[in-house]
Write the structure tokens for this entry.
Amino acid sequence: MNKDIVIHICCAACAVYPVEKLVKDGYSVTGFWYNPNIHPYVEYTKRLQSLKHYSELIDLDTVYDESYDLDEFLRQVSSNPSVPERCYHCYRMRLQRTAEFTKQEGLELFTSTLSVSPYQNHNLLIAVANEAAKRVGVKFKYIDFREGYRQGHNKARELGLYMQKYCGCIYSERDRFIDMKPENIVKKF
């Protein structure tokens, strides 16, 4: 069986456990960055630079699609930015591009670091990824990495990787901080 796999990476902190697990399970892993949902651009840049640093640290072959198509992301989610509607569009954009990259590289299997998070909608993630895989002619391998979420984040802290405070989009940032007092928000940054 071919053990090559592309992993869509949303951030370095969420990549730690999934990449280690895949390598331990005998996969040859190629990382793939495509995240036009991340807002603001400063946050996008912090996450991108942290992943580049992490990829160098562990010698992970990672390809970066740095096209920052925030306008298209916002166009898709702005008519209904509630959860899970915005998550559907977010997953679809990123996992469709990951499926296309997988095919372009002559590979047939992809997964995502999104499945390490206990905060993601795993059923929706699986459905969207399988749709993208079918459209493109590759396969999505769902792996529930949640058991390693804390372990991976602890190691990310030890490595000095950037640790974000919200999922990524402008709406998730709002949802994360909306009920906090302004002085407490400032303390977090």
About this structure: The radius of gyration is 16 Å. The beta strands are 4-8, 28-33, 61-64, 109-112, 139-140. The chain has one domain: 4-188.
